Amino acid sequence: MRLKKAEREQVRLKYGGHCAYCGVLLGDRWHADHLAPVVRELLSKQTAGGTWKLVSGKPLRPEHDVLENMMPACAPCNISKGGQTLEGWRAWIARHVESLNNYTPIYRLIKAYGLIAETGAPVVFYFEKEQQP
Length: 133
Ligand SMILES: [Zn+2]
Fold this sequence. Notes:
Blueprint: H1 5-12, E1 31-34, E2 40-46, E3 52-59, E4 70-73, H2 75-81, H3 86-103, H4 105-112, H5 126-131
Antiparallel strand pairs: 1-4, 2-3
Bound molecules: zinc ion.
């Protein structure tokens, strides 16, 4: 859905102007994210030069394309979440610690020198902390 200016401002202020997920204060450039993803179909389209490219088509879950499902998000969170559900994204973020340990020697090195400590903390989104009493 194309948000009207007032609706977009309503979404931005949902968590006091913070990203609903990481909590960063949003600047002028931010994304209206669908909490429950709409997931758009992918279409291959031929360009004028004859090559093919993928373009996003109509939403496959149009019932999620409503104002109540919109969350204010910084670009990195919105792009990282993509078409994942909240729980899918939470697990995906948590798995990155394992991925860093397995595939990133410099990460293991700086961890060995005590510059980084893994906390094992659960992934808790900003809006979840805001909702706690
Ligand atoms: Zn964020």
